[in-house]
Design brief:
heterodimer; A: 576 residues; MetI-like fold; 3 domains; two-stranded antiparallel sheet; 23 helices; globular; B: alpha/beta; Rossmann fold; 44% helix
Chain lengths: 576, 439
């Protein structure tokens, strides 16, 4: 089991600079633009009722599951397209990269869940009166949860291409199209597949959250598992929720076994290493594909066709020499900076105009206060999760047999959309009359704690055998063993898992701090609830404010805690 | 070789070629200075020199990958503006695509030319067979040994039927026996006219390899890279390494490569001061070489080619080592010989602690950078100094890579000599506490 650094960490040693500020302005400006388009029609009732009739009869579930899965893959396709274009542009053009990368960095910290309502309205307006608009809105929501880290991973790979292979591609005059498919994509493949898997895991959460949406007085439901659960909640049908959970379990099991395990194993072939590593057994599906004549024939045909496309000599062959003495044109640089500055200035002006009309400084204070509540929740939860999962993860990781059993389960659980598990909690809170402020909290981490577990397992499993023997030989035990050996040994892995978990927890707070059961509504004090309530009320300035404050919290968290910690861990705990 | 006689127009002509890296603050860093080269059909030409002599840069200029700062490069009489169709390259690191099979790797140059599938497969097959890779078609590079990988690299270059084959230290990543097999195989194919190439230009830092394979050798001097001498190799193939004339030529080239020696080490240091790049040589290796030199059978004086052969070092590794020892005053380098000095003997005879003290004294006397760091630390009230200022000063005189290497070296040497300590996290030099009342 290999683990890759979370993309948010990858630019760890990059110092925050003014480009980050500019990027923040641009992203916020873009979101406000989206809000504007959305708001202009928010309170006009939609032409037709776009709510499909959802049935709680479990016999509909296979069809709903299929629809949900189809949305997932549509979004995945869009994310891949975005990844290939956006990241390539950012990597190949110095000027574009200057601004695109900070934008990507901000985007992956923005809790997109808070903006669901606006993207929904935006797409509904594009195709008024048709279900297609709602479908697109849902797909877009999933896309926004998947695309950023995939693009980041791809960009990372493009900037670390091995110099000799780049030179060989140039010397043998591969066209830019050929180089893209022969060098760029294969080199990026292991990281990209891994990040796609993380994205898909996150995506299930979003697809469930975005199938049934109410914004102000507009609401719609698309046939799918998410809508099914939403209806079950409304009708207090616990049995239906149970069915939905079972259906989702089966879907994820299938997707995991049929697609992702084979894909991850297959992507090992692209790992850039010069020695053959110890082979892990192929997942059964990959074995089936590789060893069955029928599948071989199918995949050979596909491969042949794809190969033909990859070989096309699109784009000029590299006939250009590298001129190390060429200075970039100052004039174009300055022009480019001016354009970006103008856009940022315009964004700032729009943001101020947008907020000044309806918000007061006290609103900012309130949002910050709410944010600090949520932050305390995240910190407490993370600490508890670390205390529970680090010892368990290390215990498992040091035992190869246990690792083989536990690792796939942890990854599987990470993919399971946690919001399907909320209802039982909510029912319990309502039944026992306990404080939602405390008891809604665990929901935030229910889905993402598994990232901590499986990264720690991976870290412990990768712990070098000779060091383990040295520990045994010198009889290093107890607290000393944890302080000097195990914790430093797994730290980079832990941080990788923890950043995913904590980022996910912030995002999840938007759906976890507010819950309902029939007509009973529960909410905790916090920024997530703040955003959720503003959404329900159609109070756009507060949504923007809430999302901006949450982004700021997440970015600050990353910058002052996770990145330095990761940089420290990877510097100090690796040899050479 | 007789076939080196001019048949038609030269394949490549390079005139007054110069490559410099522009630095904002100070003078340009010159990598290549006023280099001329003419390549005819039918000859193997070697570019021989130390690392940093710009020979690889020249190869990349000839290949069209890199544009020289000034000078004229012509390919078959036409100015070169990019990677040319008739040129193929073999890389030191092999540069194989790990996700492609042997066959797919070999095919890639043909794919780039848009050669149709049937022809592609046929040519690939024959290149694979020619180079002795038959049966490995479907293997991935990581399943192959180093020697087999470089055969793939060769097949990939040959399959496009280039007029000019460029090889960038093609055998230096291989072990001695494998490298020798590949060299002989290649020369055999060349002599039997089975290679679909007209001429070969190879970069090497291995003197014997150059004399063994090339018809003509251009010996480069370093800093800046210049052609120090051009030599014709008159021996017919197959050549015998133990032939006295062969040995003499190797000896002569060692002489040429060590010639640019300053009168005394001290004068050179004083003249250049801070600007001397330091070779990253560990104190263990220095001590080991001094002990070897002092012991049997050398008794304090060794012939470099013999020493290189005995230690399995290449000229490229041995020369910086010899130069470092002579800069520190432990040994003297002259006319292809290395002999130990009084200081070197004293060092060899000393115990661990004493060696450190000797080394500390020498560092302060002979390495201005180390002396300067120590002086700054002594002067500061808190005995701390950031490494950044020293790196910046170094970068005024050398490329960032050399500056980094020099700084690393002076850190390692200073640590060994217990002259100062270094904190990697803070990038800071400091003095050891009890060190203060010493000296």
């Amino acid at each position: 089991m290999t683990s890759f650094a979370a993309p948010a960490l990858a630019s760890g040693r990059r110092m925050p600079n003014r480009w980050d500020g500019v990027a923040m302005l641009l992203v916020m400006g873009l979101l406000i633009g989206l809000v504007d388009v959305g708001r202009s029609t928010l309170f006009t009732p939609l032409a037709a009722n776009q709510t499909a009739t959802i049935h709680l009869d479990p016999s509909y579930l296979p069809f709903y599951a299929l629809r949900t899965t189809a949305r997932m893959f549509a979004a995945l396709f869009c994310s891949l397209f975005f990844t290939f274009t956006f990241a390539t542009l950012a990597a190949k053009s110095r000027r574009a990269g200057l601004i695109l990368i900070p934008i990507l960095d901000i985007l992956q910290s923005v809790p997109i869940l808070g903006f669901l309502s606006f993207t929904v309205v935006f797409f509904l307006n594009l195709f008024p009166g048709r279900v297609f608009g709602a479908e697109l809105a849902c797909i877009f929501a999933i896309f926004t949860s998947q695309a950023w880290n995939m693009a980041f991973s791809f960009y990372q790979s493009l900037t670390t291409l091995p110099a000799d292979l780049v030179e060989a591609s140039r010397a043998f005059r591969l066209s830019s199209w050929q180089k893209f498919w022969r060098l760029d994509v294969p080199f990026a493949m292991p990281g990209l597949v891994w990040n796609t898997m993380l994205s898909m895991s996150g995506g299930w959460f979003f697809v469930v959250a975005s199938e049934a949406i109410t914004v102000g007085n507009t609401s719609f439901a698309l046939p799918g598992i998410g809508s099914y659960v939403a209806l079950a909640l409304q009708q207090k049908n616990l049995l239906a929720i149970f069915y939905a959970i079972i259906a989702m379990l089966i879907v994820i099991l299938l997707y995991d076994q049929l697609l992702f395990r084979p894909l991850v194993a297959w992507s090992g072939k692209f790992r850039f290493e010069t020695t053959a590593s110890t082979a892990t057994p192929d997942p059964w599906m990959l074995k089936l594909i590789r060893q069955t004549r029928f599948f071989q024939a199918v995949f050979d045909t596909i491969g042949g066709g794809v190969g033909k496309v990859f070989r096309l000599r699109l784009g000029a062959g590299s006939t250009v020499q590298i001129d190390e003495n060429r200075q970039p044109s100052r004039v174009i640089d300055i022009l480019w900076y001016l354009i970006i500055a103008a856009l940022a200035g315009y964004s700032l002006w729009r943001i101020v105009g947008f907020i000044a009309g309806s918000l007061h400084w006290s609103d900012l204070g309130e949002a910050l206060l709410m944010g600090s509540y949520t932050m305390i929740r995240v910190i407490v939860l993370m600490s508890i999760a670390a205390l529970i999962w680090v010892p368990i993860g290390v215990w498992i990781g040091l035992r190869p047999k246990a690792t083989r059993i536990a690792q796939p389960i942890a990854q599987f659980l990470a993919a399971f959309p946690a919001n399907l598990l909320f209802p039982p909690f909510v029912v319990a809170i309502v039944y026992f009359h306990v404080s939602p402020n405390i008891w809604l909290t665990p929901l935030m981490l229910i889905g993402t704690q598994w990232y901590i577990l499986f990264n720690v397992i991976a870290g412990a499993a990768a712990f070098p055998g000779d060091m383990r023997e040295a520990v045994a030989n010198f009889r290093i035990r107890g607290f000393l063993r944890w302080r000097r050996v195990m914790i430093p040994g797994i730290l980079p892995y832990f941080v990788t898992g923890a950043i995913t978990a904590s980022g996910g927890a912030w995002n999840a707070s938007i759906v976890a701090e507010v819950a309902s059961w029939g007509s009973t509504n529960l909410h905790a004090q916090g920024l997530g609830a703040y955003i959720a309530q503003a959404t329900a009320a159609g109070d756009t300035p507060r949504i923007v404010l809430g999302v901006a404050v949450m982004s700021a919290y997440v970015i600050t968290f990353n910058r002052i805690l996770w990145r330095p910690l990761y940089a420290y861990a990877s510097r100090r705990t690796t040899l050479g | 070789m007789d076939q080196a006689i001019m048949v038609d127009a030269p394949l490549v002509t390079v005139r007054n070629c110069r490559q410099a890296y522009h630095k904002d603050a100070s003078t340009d860093l010159i990598v290549l200075d006023d280099v001329n080269l003419t390549l005819q059909s039918g000859e193997i030409v070697g570019l021989l020199g130390r690392s940093g002599s710009g020979k690889s840069t020249l190869l990349r200029i000839v290949s069209g990958l890199l544009k020289p700062t000034s000078g004229e490069v012509k390919w078959r009489g036409q100015p070169l503006t990019g990677p040319a169709a008739g040129v193929a390259m073999v890389f030191q690191s092999f540069a194989l695509f790990p996700w492609l099979t042997v066959q797919e790797n070999v095919e890639i140059g043909l794919e780039a030319q848009g050669v149709k599938k049937a022809e592609r497969e046929e040519r690939t097959e024959s290149a694979i067979d020619l180079i002795g890779l038959g049966g490995y078609d479907t293997a991935y590079p990581k399943e192959l040994s180093g020697g087999m990988r470089q055969r793939v690299g060769l097949a990939r270059a040959l399959v496009v039927h280039p007029d000019l084959l460029l090889m960038d230290e093609p055998f230096s990543a291989l072990d001695v026996l494998t490298a020798e097999t590949l060299r002989t195989d290649l020369i055999d194919l060349w002599m039997n006219k089975k290679l679909p190439v007209k001429s070969i230009l190879m970069v090497t830092h291995n003197i014997e390899e150059a004399v063994l394979m090339c018809d003509r050798v251009l010996v480069f001097s370093s800093n800046p890279g210049r052609v120090a001498q051009e030599l014709k190799v008159p021996f017919p193939h197959p050549r015998n390494r133990y032939d006295p004339a062969f040995r003499q030529m190797v000896d002569d080239i060692y002489g040429i490569m060590t010639r640019r020696k300053p009168p005394t080490a001290q004068a050179a240091v004083a003249a250049t001061g801070f600007a001397t790049p330091l070779h990253p040589i560990s104190t263990n290796i220095m001590a080991g070489l001094l002990e070897t030199l002092e012991g049997k059978p050398y008794d304090g004086r060794a012939d470099l080619p013999a020493l290189a052969a005995a230690l399995q070092y290449e000229a490229d590794e041995l020369l910086p080592l010899g130069e470092t020892l002579s800069m520190l005053g432990f040994a003297l380098l002259e006319e292809g010989d290395l002999h130990i000095t009084q200081a070197g003997r004293k060092f060899v005879d000393a115990e661990t602690e004493e060696r450190k003290q000797i080394f500390a004294k020498i560092l302060q006397a002979q390495v201005p950078l180390a002396a300067e760091i120590r002086k700054v630390l002594d002067e500061r009230w808190n005995h701390r100094a950031s490494a950044v200022r020293f790196r910046d000063e170094l970068e005024d005189h050398m490329s960032p890579e050399y500056a980094e290497e020099t700084l690393r070296t002076v850190i390692a040497w200073g640590r060994y000599a217990e002259l100062y300590e270094y904190d990697e996290e803070a990038q800071q030099f400091s003095l050891e506490e009890e060190d203060e009342d010493e000296e």
